[in-house]
Amino acid sequence: RKEVEQDPGPFNVPEGATVAFNCTYSNSASQSFFWYRQDCRKEPKLLMSVYSSGNEDGRFTAQLNRASQYISLLIRDSKLSDSATYLCVVIRDSISGYALNFGKGTSLLVTP
Amino acid sequence: ETGVTQTPRHLVMGMTNKKSLKCEQHLGHNAMYWYKQSAKKPLELMFVYSLEERVENNSVPSRFSPECPNSSHLFLHLHTLQPEDSALYLCASSQVQGNSPLHFGNGTRLTVT
Q1: CB of B36 closer than 8 Å to CB of A43
Q2: Given this model, what pLDDT does residue A37 score?
Q3: Cystine design at B56: which of A110, B29, B42, B48 (Cβ 3.0–4.6 Å)?
Q4: How far is A32 from chain B (nearest CA, A)?
Q5: What's the whole-number mean pLDDT along residues A29-43?
Q6: What share of chain A is helix, strand, coil (3-state, %, to 5)?
Q7: Contact residues, chain A, for B105 at CB < 8 Å
Q8: What is the pLDDT of residues A40-76, one digit of tens each?
Q9: d(CA A57, CA A63)
Q10: Which chain B residues contact residue A105 at CB under 8 A?
């Protein structure tokens, strides 16, 4: 089983819709979680960290479910400019070593 | 200057050329990474340097040779590349302790002819 898995999509949603992505991770010792956004032919950019209590930044909400080992990203009131690939990142730093793993990304297309 | 800077932004090279990609980070991080991203494909980790020591080499062909002279600079030396090596090469840095996220440079778009 891959350490981090995402549904590649694409998710096609109309403007104004609410869309959610999940990302599952296999190692229960994972400690830090992030969502990145990558536009076509550009570098990934940090969108938001994911905290145990959940966190919100404007239209974006990130949540962590340790029991089921997944993180989620919810986008409300989708804008055309939200079209991008969303990558989750899982970090594990333990006695066995440091590991940082990217998911393969979920593609979102917001249409007029 | 802040963040992670990569040069050049674009590079076209022949299969017999030797070139180097440069990455510099001004974030005080202690780990640096090279990633490769081919068209419409996910990120592929190539090399990781933590505290200036190479800690991971994901079976990358020897025609790619990394160099990390200090914690702020990372190079990727290229020689006798193949057309299939054409891709976006991304440098990133992070602070290993504290599980901080990666910060990426703008990337070098490499075309091998």
Answers
A1: no
A2: 97
A3: B48
A4: 6
A5: 92
A6: 5, 60, 40
A7: 43
A8: 989 999 999 998 888 999 999 999 999 999 999 999 9
A9: 12
A10: 42
Containing B90, the helix (H) or strand (E) segment is strand B87-94
Contact at CB, B106 and A43, closer than 8 angstroms: yes
- Per-residue confidence (pLDDT) for residue A95, from 0 to 100: 62
pLDDT at B50: 87
Judge whether B2 is closer than 8 Å to chain A, CB to CB: no
Interchain contact, A89 vs B43, CB within 8 Å: no
Token pair listed for B82: 């193949």
Using CA atoms, how far apart are residues A10 and A109, in angstroms rounded to an integer? 7
Helix (H, G, I), strand (E, B) or coil at A28: coil
CB contact at 8 A, A70 and A20: no
Asked if the C-beta of B50 comes within 8 angstroms of chain A's C-beta atoms, the answer is yes
Structure-block tokens of residue A43: 């570098």
| Type of residue at A36 | Y
Q: Which of A34-48, A74-88, B39-53, B98-112 has the lowest mean pLDDT?
A: B39-53
Strand partners, B10: B109
The sign of the CA dihedral A93, B98, A105, B3 is negative
